[in-house]
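step: validate -> pass
step: tokenize input -> pass
step: predict -> running
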Amino acid sequence: MTSFKAILVSKDDERYQARMTSLSPEQLPKEPIEVAVEYSTLNYKDALAITGESPIIRHFPLVPGIDLAGLVTKSEDPKFKVGDAVMLNGWGVGESKWGGMSQRAAVRGEWLLPLPESFSTKEAMAIGTAGYTAALCVLALKQHNIMPADGDVLVTGASGGVGSIAVNLLSNLGYRVVASTGKSSEVDWLKRQGAADVIDRTELSSSNRPLAAERWSGVVDTVGSHTLASACASTQYGGVVMACGLAQGMDFPATVAPFILRGITLVGIDSVYCSKERRFQAWDLLAKYLERAALQGLITIIGLDEVSERAPDMLAGRLKGRVVVDVNV
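step: predict -> pass
step: emit ->
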């Protein structure tokens, strides 16, 4: 291929711009492995990077996209050979290193995972960083010995990528899931993903009480800010809260009361630099417990030429589920 399509983000003194362009192979970073990308994804972090709403990108120009899946076309790493199906989530790709919103990518072997046999490249990106993060949250819940019999598990931002997959995984593992969303139109959809009950996000988004009635044995929070504080305040004695997102904000207007009076645990979930061992555990969980029919109902597929116009919709909460980018249409 003499040239390939990619989204390229540039910045100068006058403007910040994300545009689809044509690049030559010589413009790829000098890394030991090259991948013919088949699918990428549009995540919340990608939307921030593409719009410039947050300083996600560290170096310019840069190809965004924290996820990619495709086939190895060149390898100087003995762990991977030409033709291998691979995927990548995180490792600073799409932030400080060229990412997946491109028909070609140059990466390092330590960033790659072999594509699980049970998933196609499209399915792997339908899951992507969002689903893998949801699986990390579920692993943490189980690691802290929160069992289905212990009570309801709350998922905030449930109509988003992380939230919707967390709902499905938890339900399939036998937990009773309460989904929180600001989209009343998605109540039936969330129940089809496995939610036993759906509450409006306003029940959680503005409370400033240090303690509230005990409701949750566990929480998967994708929102942060007042919602996370409210979730902590209403978590039952010995419960566990997983914090993995900041859609509402990075602040945490809480008190120590839930921690010292109820002994709850707040667990931070990092998907970017998580160990390979933990990544394999997360993808194994997804292979066993994520419902494939539900996965198909979670995804919207777009082309590279639609990415820039969809990014503001993601930040505004107008999208649901997972947005998969087919880089070759």
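step: describe -> The radius of gyration is 20 Å.
step: cleanup -> pass
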